[in-house]
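Take one protein record:
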Amino acid sequence: MPQPCSTHAHSTASSAPRTRTVISSLCTHARPSPFSSAARLHRCCANNSRYINNDWILSGRTSYICGSFLRQVPMDPVGIQLGTGNLWSCLVNLLSKDPKWLSDKMSFFFPNMDLGSQNEVSDPEQRVILQLRELHSQGLDTWQSFIYCVCMELDVPLDLEVPLLSIWGSEDGKGSPSRLGGSEESQTESQLHHGLKRPHQSYESSPRRKQSRKQQLELAKKYLQLLRTSAQQRYGDRLSGSEQPLASHQPYIPPILQWTRATVPLDTQQGAVMGDIKAEDGTDVNIWDLFNPRTKKGPRVTVLLGTAGMGKTMLAHRLCQKWAEGQLEHFQALFLFEFRQLNLLTSFLTLPQLLFDLYLSPESGPDAVFQYLTDNAERVLLVFDGLDEALQPCSGGDTGGLEGLGPALSLFSGLCDGTLLPGCRVMATSRPGKLPPCLPAEAAMVQMWGFDSPRVEEYVSHFFSAQPSQEGALAELRVNRRLRSMCTVPALCRIACLCLRRLLPARAQGQSVALLPTVTQLYMQMVLGLSPHGCLPTTTLLGLGEVARRGLETGKVVFYARDIPPSVMAFGAAHSLLSSFCVYTGPGHLQTGYAFTHLSLQEFFAALYLMGSPEVDKDNLAHHVTLNSRWVLRTKARVGLSDHLPTFLAGLASRACRPFLGQLAGRGEAWVGARQAAVVQVLRKLATRKLTGPKVIELCRCVDETQEPELVRLAAQSLRYELSFHNFPLTRADLTSLTNVLQRREGPIHLDFEGCPLEPHCPEALVGCGQVEHLSFKSRKCGDAFAEALSRSLQTMGRLQKLGLAGSKITAQGIRHLVKALPFCPQLEEVSFQDNQLKDQEVLNVAEVLPCLPRLRRLDLSGNNVSVSTLLCLAKVAVSCPTVRTLQVREADLIFLLSPRAETAVELQRAPDLQESDSQRKGAQSRSLTLRLQKCQLQVHDAEALIALLLGGPCLEEVDLSGNQLEDEGCRLMAEAALQLRITRKLDLSDNGLSVAGLRCVLSTLSTCRTLAELHISLLDKAVVLTFAQKTEEQEGPQKSAAFLDSLVSQMPSELPLSSHRIRLTRCGFQARHLQQLCKALEGSCHLGHLCHLQLDFSGNALGDEGAALLARLLPGLGALQSLDLSGNGFSLDAVLALARCFSALQWLFHLDVSLDSQRVLLTGARRGRDIRAGGFLPDIPAGAEFSGSGQRCAPRSFCLRECQLEPLSLTRLCATLEQCPGPLAVQLSSAVLSDQSLETLLHCLPRLRHLSLLQLSETGLSAKSPFLLADVFSLCPWVQKLDLRSLRHATLHFTSSREREGVCCGFTGCGLSREHVASLCRLLSKCDDLSQLDLSANLLGDDGLRCLLECLPQSESQQHLSGKRPAPGGDSARLPARPGGLGEPGLRAELPDSLLQTGGGWEDTEAERVQLRARARAQTGHRPEPVPAADRARTDPVLPGPEAADGSSEPAEATSWAALPQGGRAVGGQSQGAGPARSLHPGLGQHH
């Protein structure tokens, strides 16, 4: 062995002191860092560059000093020249002293090595030689990495460390230890991977042998045992040395697991016995429940979802470990695959190759083993880790059977759908993202949420077990909310424990946690812990960061030895920053792969390189600061590898990281500050944009990591007032970052979380977020743990006005915490616990909080399990609570509506214990309550309890009990109690099984209820509604009554005045046999004074003609009614005639309106307008009413019959019926067609209708003969005052009450009369001695007809005068007025159809006719025409007013009528004879257009 180092004899005098100083320093600091002094000197000589060691720099003379020192190290030059034989021997002797360390390194570089075969060698030195041969056979990269591990981790003498690094650790080292350590044969043997768990032989190339059944079972048994042994070696608990902090033994605390998709209920008993992974709430799942043999019908495929760092891979390893220890005994075989390794396959695989070549090959008989696994597939479990890392899309096609070749993901698809190894169980882990479509729809989805606060404390307690810093670590976690929130991620919890173990002993309480405010600084402290003496291995850290960055940019997470420099590999292996595993790339191709122990660790080192490497400019750095959307379920087929990279870059932009980055980069503070400012500037731009919910969370994470107050304030103020988060998972860390940002916001904000998978304890992160006004959660993932965490946050939200927790699974345990927290939110105005799993007691507990919330306006408890007894208790709460205005329950709906008064709210805030103050008692007396209990399955005894409950309560505005099971008795009880309950508006008893007998009972109760305004019962429609007047008579004073009456004046005619009462018995199926009992039930109520103006409605029944006849006899017993509606009862004309007889029997009946085809039958009284309470009933007096002999004016009666075929016999019967009707009587008939015989029959019946005042035929088709039949009416009925026939469809006859008539008016408008009709018509009209007006407009008379008409005009001794008048603009008629005769002699005015007068060749163009007409007029009159008196004109012509003047007003009364020219001509006129306003017509002056 070489001697210890000493001063070289040939050193010069000038350099000797300095050399001795340096050597002394190097020897003194033998272990200042992971590298030894000799290694550092060697690197200085090789690089001929500067070297940083703490605070001093060696440069310039460094080469001379290092060379001088190396010359002082005695080495055997012959040994080096001969192949480093002495060096090999020294290395073997050194490693023989620590075989445990060498075995660990062999496991790192050979993940698939079977160490048991090497332990069989008895000679320790020979065993070390075999292991070294294996290492060297892996190639130069692996051998150099191992040499660096030796020098970094072991206590290597200085004279041995220097040659190791210079010869075998350098890039140009050519030493070959195999030359002195063994022969060429041994080297070849080692290169064949001797010592692997099984000598590698592909399944496809192995020989096929036939075995018996017994031999197959023996081979399978051996293989299954080999599987358990291998799992114990791979995943068993292994303790590492304390010098490797990241590799130290870590406790396993089971994370929170929750179902995310409905699956078959699992038996949790087995998991509880095993006592491993805990169950939370009713929906949390135990990991053992996923593979319970009792759930044979459960899903075969289970997917475990969790974000990075939640412990998915750790759980998969834990599963393998527990199976190897004998748990999960249902499974005989368990295989674990990682997609990051499967992605590296370069050749296609079959399922046997996947099981035997990639995982573990059997010693012999692979066919027999695979056949056994196929026959017992239900006892085989395959676990696939990292499904989100699968690169190839999953093909949905055929996999080609067991022997078919396909990519690894296709094999996974075949296992999921059962085409490969049918019956086996499959479990996959994945980050949330778009899962491959090959997963079956019934796959069980389980969400992993990491730790809650109890689990965090449990993990820390186990980590610091038997250490004095245990209590200190727990105390730091309990007081620091930020650190506790970060520790909910298991990976961060472990790093936090490592940092606290280093920081706690040297610092006072609180100082350690102050160094860990963000996730980035947590990782930074971890890196600082790798160099305990404060000397950062900057080159190694940047090299590791470059490897990480290059992997992220190329999508690479698995590296080979050639990808990582040896020194970086040694550093990563020494501190467990890198993990190793065997990579199978094809048959016969096995390599060792390396990866960062966690993906977030790779992202951190990549961010470290981007921020600290001078090779990366600021533009490239800013390019990596982006916001990744979390809506990956719809947008990404594969989750990106750099999700946390922007967060780490933002964290490194914090001022607290500036010294660390300056030391890492070897640059000044200005250089680091400029790079940090570039990152902050990008975040400033992002903060002002309108972002979606997922990007808002990412922005808050980044902004919070920067610890920049101005940036945080900018982001907080830029957020929208209503912030919605929909359909993406949220963790407690997410809400913590959001809360930290919102605390810098000045204004309020609304937060809405809908459809987001939420971590059970994430609401704890909202503690102190006082800016939230509206907070709403709607997710099936929220359970009791969520409610408990939320209750702790509610107490700190002083502005909270609306709280919504809908669609969750809260039970009694969770609601208990919320009920205690609600009184601490006095500003709450709306609370919703809709669609939860609350039962009776929980609902009552929530309702009892109502008096403690003075500003509450709405409480929604819909969608919960509430019984009838609880509903009655809730009604009692509504009665007793002074602020409740409405309780609305309908099936699943349960809503309280409240209307708090300002003074009540102030009193409750000042003195919350004074619940019975004077103002509250007054409010209880004055308030009105609306109670709606619809479809609640209430029965008779419930109605009795409800009545007793409501009797002592406030006035009830509305009580709605529709859709229950009250039946007849319950409806009767409620109707009887209506007056006592002081219902002011409505009582609804619809759909309660009321029968006809029960209806009569309800009717009998009307005699006791004086406030009833309307009763509506429809048995077929299941409607029973009682409407009440707003105020009772006792409550109304005279002034209020007068104001109330005045307000009714402006009501529409269809609106009922409050003095009217209506009973509607519609669509009840009543027949004639029911009328006797109904009228008997109504008699008592109808004769009461408060129902004197009753309106009855029997529409929509089946009374028929028999019922109409019976009702006509029963109506007098009902007293005076306001109206009676009998529509829709199947009436014929016989029923109409029976009802018409009621005119003589019923004094109140004034109007009978019948539309026979549409079955509209309405009987009404004469009452119109408002009800005058002081004077009683006084109807308005209609026009045309007559006075009785006592001087009282009689209101006319009307009979209207529409849509009826009027035959002669029917008209005879109708007129005979109407003969007995008291007058005056107006009759309106309407028929599609009225024959001449029917019209003649009707006209001959008119003389018998002594009280008839009006006869109207409307919308009735008449024949061309009808004008002559109607013209003869003057001879049949001498008291006809006016006859008007229009278009042969509308005929109106007015009758006078006196036998002497004056100024009879007659009109036949648009009846198609021509020249040949004039003579006949005038002959019939001549029988009327006092005809004063004749209207023949819109006919076909022409010139000849006009001449004939002029000849037929009646002549009198007074020499009637014919004159014309200027037409009004747009006029279409010509009126020829004649001067009336002397006293008592009426004048005649004929109105002609100007539109049909001939203008060409007519009388207007003949001068002779003009002269003849003028001479005749002068001869007949002898003087100018005199105007018709206004009184006479109004009497004789009330229908046809004079034309309007130019200003729009009516023509003066003394002016005569104008004669209008035809529409085709223009107005002509001349000056009349003499003075006066009248103008004569000059027919000869007409002109053509």
